[in-house]
Structure formats: structure tokens, C-alpha cells
Specification:
The protein has helices at residues 2-8, 35-52, 68-71, 102-116, 121-127, 130-156, 165-189, 204-207, 212-238; strands at residues 15-19, 55-58, 95-97, 255-257. By secondary structure, the protein is mostly helical. It has 2 domains: 16-100 and 249-257, no CATH class; 102-242, no CATH class. Strands 1-2 form a two-stranded parallel sheet. The chain is elongated and about 80 Å long.
């Protein structure tokens, strides 16, 4: 594009006004915002500018959280520096990771899984024949693994939400729900004659034994999950510009070493 402009305006000085790439937010087609992709794009632009003697303005110096209200999550993460610690997001010649806080993510995920697993507990051992235990254990292990894989990522993603109290409260509620539902599902799997998983409205008393609190939690979790699913679906349909829906999850695990 610069070459085309140079051909049309021969002899004129050309400035490239804005070039940037966000480090977080919703992907558009094949364009995925991530720390590694931001570093790759900007380093490539700078390398080309040095080689061709271009004048380029990188957008922008610092993340601007207020732009999340106008552009969604992606709007607040165009900066070379983050908005809180004012630290440079990447350095030329050094590795760049999409998960710089992976230890915290892993710890939160392991903690979520450990909260789910004990609910299989001794109650199931008293109420289920030994030959049926392996199936229950496998199902509950799958529930714990699923919760552990996504909980840390979701929890660390909470600060990236638009800085509106309603949005933050909604996201916090979904994170709590993402931990509560696996725990109740594991509890259900460890109970004798658990109610049909497709219809937790029925036989919740058998699932919870004689516990009225257990029956209420079962009904509440089902209703809350249904409301949350409808809320997310409607948001993606009617307000997609401001909702994150990342598809290229594999690209987020990469770590790149930039050229010096």
C-alpha cells in the first residue's frame, strides 16, 4: 500500500499514520489478538521500516482501558506498555509468551480440580457397588479435568472485561458458576441413584439425599447455567462487536523469540 501511494504522489514525503496490533480481545477472521502476535506484527513493521527507510507511527504507547467501552476488550490493549504497571509488553530479541502468568493459571486450575475430586468421597463408596465405582470415578475425573483446564484462564481474564460494574459483576458470577456447577455435578455423580443428568429438576431429593440445601443448589445451578448460556448466546448475536469469542485457542499457547 505504501508503494502504491508513493507511485501516485511521487516526490512527496510519506508517513504511515497508525500501525498496531492488540494483545487481547476478540479475533476477527484469522486475525488473533495475543501478546505473541502483537510482538510479531510490530517487530515486522519496525524491521521493514528500518530496511526501507519508512516513517511509521506505532499505535499506541499505552493501553487505554476506557476504549474497551467503545471497541470491546480489544480496544484497551493496543499499547506497547500496559496501563497499570507501565511495563513494556515485550522486548526485541527476547521470548514472548501468550501466557506469562501460566504458573498462576495452573495453580488456579489445579485448585479447581482438587475442589471437585473430593466430592466423589466416601458417600459413593457406601452407596455404590464396587464394580460400579470405576465408571463414577472416570466421570468425576473428567468433570474435574474440564473445570481445571479453563478455570485459571477465565479467572485471570476477569480484569480484561470492560470497566463497567455490570460487566465485571456478570463475569465474576460466571466464574463462580463455572466452579460451582462442576462441584455439584461431582456431588451428584457420587450419590446413590443420581437423577437423570438431562433433567436435574426431577429427583433432586434423591440426588441430595435428605438435604433440602442440596436440592435447592441443584435447581439453582441448573437455572443459573441456563440463564448464563442464553445471556452469552444473545450477546454474541445482538452485540458481537463487544463480546470476546476466541477460536484459535492453539495460537495462544505459542512462545516466540523475536529477532534482535
Amino acid at each position: 500500500m505504501r508503494e502504491k501511494v508513493a507511485e501516485i504522489f511521487a516526490g512527496k514525503e510519506i508517513w504511515i499514520g497508525e500501525v498496531g496490533w492488540p494483545s487481547e480481545g476478540r479475533m476477527r477472521d484469522g486475525a488473533l489478538p495475543s501478546p505473541a502476535n502483537q510482538a510479531l506484527v510490530l517487530s515486522g513493521v519496525v524491521e521493514a521500516a528500518r530496511a526501507e527507510n519508512w516513517k511509521v507511527n506505532l499505535i499506541e504507547a499505552f493501553d487505554q482501558p476506557w476504549k474497551r467501552l467503545l471497541e470491546g476488550t480489544v480496544g484497551g490493549y493496543w499499547g506497547l506498555f500496559d496501563d497499570s504497571a507501565r511495563e513494556l509488553k515485550f522486548r526485541w530479541g527476547e521470548p514472548v509468551s501468550n501466557h506469562p502468568k501460566w504458573r498462576i493459571e495452573a495453580a488456579l486450575g489445579i485448585g479447581a480440580a482438587l475442589l471437585v475430586l473430593p466430592l466423589r468421597g466416601s458417600r459413593a463408596a457406601r452407596t455404590m457397588p464396587a464394580k460400579d465405582d470405576w465408571g463414577r470415578d472416570l466421570a468425576i475425573a473428567a468433570i474435574a479435568l474440564s473445570a481445571g483446564l479453563v478455570f485459571g484462564w477465565a479467572a485471570l481474564g476477569l480484569p480484561m472485561e470492560p470497566p463497567e460494574p455490570g460487566d465485571r459483576l456478570r463475569s465474576a458470577g460466571m466464574i463462580v458458576l463455572s466452579l460451582l456447577v462442576p462441584m455439584l455435578a461431582a456431588r451428584r455423580g457420587g450419590a446413590k441413584r443420581a437423577a437423570c443428568a438431562a433433567s436435574p429438576w426431577r429427583s433432586t431429593r434423591r440426588f441430595a439425599g435428605k438435604s433440602t440445601l442440596g436440592a435447592c443448589c441443584s435447581r439453582f445451578s441448573f437455572a443459573a447455567t441456563l440463564v448464563a448460556a442464553i445471556h452469552v448466546a444473545l450477546g454474541l448475536v445482538f452485540d458481537p462487536r463487544y463480546k470476546d469469542f476466541q477460536l484459535a485457542s492453539a495460537d495462544r499457547t505459542r512462545a516466540w523469540r523475536l529477532p534482535p
